[in-house]
Automatic annotation (TrEMBL):
A Gene Ontology cellular-component term: plasma membrane
Domain of life: Bacteria
Record-given protein name: Chromate transporter
Keywords (A to Z) from UniProt: Cell membrane, Membrane, Transmembrane, Transmembrane helix
Subcellular location(s) of the protein: Cell membrane
Membrane-topology annotation of the record: Multi-pass membrane protein
Isomerase recorded as keyword: no
Chain segments annotated as transmembrane: 75-98, 110-130, 142-173, 193-214, 287-311, 323-341, 361-386
Gene Ontology MF, one: chromate transmembrane transporter activity
One Pfam family cited in the UniProt record for this chain: Chromate_transp
Length: 387
């Protein structure tokens, strides 16, 4: 059953207003909302979507949201899902630039409360996905090994290579019977449209730098810098920060102090960290720069999802490839577990008080079954009081 575009927009906007904690926590919010509450897709399909988006450059959580929107409402649903999840935080960061750009947000107690509640949210997501995706000894072992590898080997390509290795192990060692039959997913986009989107992705990646050399137009320079960043970063989240820094600081668009202040603001708002581009664009060229930078950095993800999703269900139905996805899903659990340790745990848990607040938040989520947004508010309030 398909969903209306307005319904997709409404649900995505609510997630965009309440999804604190970074990209890994976002996957936990999405799983709770789309799989458990609304049952728009099953656990296996959601896990496969996460695995697919881990392969692609760009913000994985935003790509999962775009893919779910496309499954439920076609191209318009994908656009509505992206707008709803992205623009609340983008708008908040633009407001931060105009109103709070001189504030030292990194020291705010309520911001530390947000970091602590992210520990509970990610832990809940890891626990729930592990029970479904790594239920036996072989897949649980793969998950632990993937977690160890992701913690020890932290490079831009480490997650992609771990996932590729897990897929090969699944191909060789996991029996097909251990993988359930995938549910049918109807994608309303044709493969011709998908191929056009992939072609446009590579064309822009190659042509924008050349066009930038031929003109001094700042809007084209912004488009090139942010599109290239969104096309080349794997893993999403904080991985994007070094690339953005090399694009905007040497060019003189943004000062180091402005960059650090914006980074603090980006951690304080819900939604994808890639909306940090809205703040940087606002510093560079006001509202127009903010809008252009936001669209440019997310455009590669949109084109890649449109280009790959129509082929995805056909690939999942190949018997041997199901074992590949089983191995990949186990590795994704391990990567989430690694992210729970670093950066989520290492940034948030510094004192016994931090651990206690995280433990209480985890209990509210798992035992009392409170909605994540209420636990976020609880942690913000207690963070402001305790810190």
């Amino acid at each position: 059953m398909k969903s209306s575009v307005l319904e997709i927009l409404r649900v995505a906007t609510r997630l965009g207003l309440t999804s604190f904690g970074g990209p890994i926590a976002h996957l936990g919010y999405f799983r709770e909302e789309y799989v458990h509450r609304r049952k728009w897709l099953d656990e296996k399909t959601y896990a496969d979507l996460v695995a697919l988006c881990q392969f692609l450059p760009g913000p994985a959580s935003s790509q999962v949201g775009i893919a779910i929107g496309m499954i439920r409402g076609g191209f318009a649903g994908a656009l509505a899902s992206w707008v709803g999840f992205t623009f609340p935080s983008a708008l908040a960061l633009i407001i931060f630039f105009y109103v709070f750009q001189q504030s030292q947000l990194q020291e705010a107690g309520w911001l530390h409360g947000l970091l602590v509640v992210a520990v509970a949210i990610v832990a809940q997501a890891v626990w729930g996905m592990a029970r479904n995706l790594a239920p036996d000894r072989s897949r649980a072992t793969m998950a632990f090994l993937a977690a160890a590898g992701a913690v020890i080997w932290q490079t831009a390509l480490s997650q992609v290579l771990i996932i590729v290795l897990a897929g090969l192990i699944g191909w060789w060692l996991l029996p097909n019977k251990s993988v359930s039959e995938p549910s049918s997913i109807q994608i309303s986009l044709s493969r011709k449209v998908a191929l056009f989107a992939l072609g446009l992705f590579f064309a822009l990646l190659l042509l924008l730098p050349l066009m930038r050399q031929l003109t001094s137009a700042q809007w084209l320079a912004i488009l090139d810098s942010f599109y290239r960043t969104g096309s080349l970063v794997f893993g999403g989240g904080h991985v994007v920060l070094p690339l953005l820094q090399t694009e905007v600081i040497p060019s003189g668009w943004v000062s180091p102090n402005q960059f650090l202040t914006g980074y603090g603001a980006a951690q304080a708002v819900p939604g994808p960290l890639f909306t940090f581009s809205a703040y940087l664009g606002a510093v560079t060229n006001g509202w127009l720069g903010a809008l252009l930078a936001t669209i440019a950095i997310f455009l590669p993800s949109f084109l890649l999802i449109v280009g790959t999703l129509p082929f995805w269900d056909w690939i999942r139905r190949k018997p041997k490839l199901q074992a590949v996805f089983s191995g990949i899903n186990a590795a994704v659990v391990g990567i989430l577990l690694a992210a729970l340790y670093d950066p989520v745990w290492t940034k948030a848990i510094q004192t016994p008080l931090d651990f206690s607040l995280a433990l209480i938040a985890f209990g509210l989520l798992t035992i009392w079954k409170l909605p994540p947004w209420t636990v976020v508010i609880f942690s913000i309030v207690f963070g402001a009081i305790l810190y």
